[in-house]
Amino acid sequence: MSGSGEVIGAILILIGAIFSLISAIGNVRLPDVYTRSHAASKSSTLGVLCALVGTLLYFLITDGFFSIRLILGIFFVFLTAPVAAHVICRAAYRHKVPLAEQSAQDELKDYYREKEILKAEEKANFVTDQVK
Amino acid sequence: MIFETVLITALCILMLAILANLYRVVKGPSSADRVIALDSVGINLIASIAVFSVLLHTHAFFDLILLIGILSFIGTIAFARFIERGVVIERKR
């Protein structure tokens, strides 16, 4: 009985570690902050999820111990890693971090330029109202 | 015996991943790169704590998984706000 738990845990943990290594390689090799966040958030989340599920199943099968804290950790990591990646990418775009040269299109470019023009017009109108 | 070997191999692979991410932390051109790499280091640290608790066969480290997850998320959000607006906590809107 304990042998099957060890086998399942070891396989899941090894898969998770390999996914983490792949995500780290992507984080080193990709050309751009946006593509790098793509690698770092998705596959890294999958890797840590595999490792934590392997730990949970190992303790469940060998000890019969079901850890609520581990379930909470899995849930929390699964919930927050994409949110964090999204927030940091938005901050990078608003901070005008450049895209890589070979990137094909940038759909947000016009949107933010219009927004800046609108803001400048509002400021100008405010100033003229004050003068009047 | 094979089980421990597999676990130590997984720990070595995670250590390699953390080192690769630290290279990006040192070299990254923009600060968003560094924050993404630090977030990734935190997630790899969570995975290595889980592997370590299996290796030592103890339940004592499960709190640390939650703690490091929450701290890493809050740190990333704070850094993102700092990059975006220049301040972390806004006094008045």
TrEMBL record, chain A:
The keyword Protein biosynthesis appears for this protein: no
Localization in the cell: Membrane
Signal peptide (UniProt feature, chain positions): none
UniProt cross-references to Pfam families, sorted A to Z: PhaG_MnhG_YufB
GO molecular function, one term: sodium:proton antiporter activity
Residues that span the membrane, as ranges: 6-28, 40-61, 67-89
Gene Ontology CC: membrane
Protein's membrane topology: Multi-pass membrane protein
Keyword terms, alphabetized: Antiport, Membrane, Transmembrane, Transmembrane helix, Transport
Top-level lineage group: Bacteria
NCBIfam families registered for this protein in UniProt: CPA3_mnhG_phaG, PRK12586.1, PRK12674.1-2
UniProt family annotation: Belongs to the CPA3 antiporters (TC 2.A.63) subunit G family.
Name the record gives this protein: Na+/H+ antiporter subunit G
Source species: Paenibacillus paeoniae
Lineage: Bacteria, Bacillati, Bacillota, Bacilli, Bacillales
TrEMBL record, chain B:
Principal place of residence: membrane
Membrane spanning stretches: 6-23, 35-55, 61-83
Keyword field: Antiport, Cell membrane, Ion transport, Membrane, Transmembrane, Transmembrane helix, Transport
Membrane topology according to the record: Multi-pass membrane protein
Domain of life of the source: Bacteria
Places the protein is found: Cell membrane
A cellular-component GO term for this protein: plasma membrane
Keyword Repressor: no
GO MF terms, alphabetically ordered: sodium:proton antiporter activity
Family: Belongs to the CPA3 antiporters (TC 2.A.63) subunit F family.
The protein's name in its UniProt record: Na(+)/H(+) antiporter subunit F1
Organism: Paenibacillus paeoniae
Taxonomic placement: Bacteria, Bacillati, Bacillota, Bacilli, Bacillales
